[in-house]
Amino acid sequence: MDAKDMYEDTPHGVIADKKMNLEWLPKDSWGDLGKWLTWDDANYYIQTMRNVYAGGHADWRLPTKEEALSLFNEELSQKDWQGEEVHIHSAFVPKCGTMIWTSEVNDAGQAVAVNLKDGTAEFADKMNRDHYTTRLVRNPNSRGK
């Protein structure tokens, strides 16, 4: 599948990920709130988006490491919040954050964050908020409408 055809903006305001069979919100938390988030803040953000029924659904969650890494594609390019290049599909709202929190955590109080500039993933302190954001995802076949 061509990188440009992997994502589709849907009529109900979510991005369909044809490769991973997922749905993403088009804005990350930075674009939505205008502030950086700790990992705990990202989890509160999920609750807010569930309560407002974003995109007509209440089952939003943090992406796994694999799901977040799937957003990165070196063939694709748009600008992040600083006007620097990130490798994410143009269906997503531009001026996004670079570092995305995921659901994967370890016993040392760290969570995996994915970098959309270079496609790397690393553990970061969950209390870090400097330039950290999240993108919410859902499984379209789940029952959490």
Automatic annotation (TrEMBL):
Pfam families assigned to the protein according to its UniProt record, in alphabetical order: Lcl_C (PF07603)
Domain Lcl C-terminal: start-end pairs: 13-138
Domain of life: Bacteria
Name of the protein in its database record: Lcl C-terminal domain-containing protein
Organism: Nitrospina watsonii
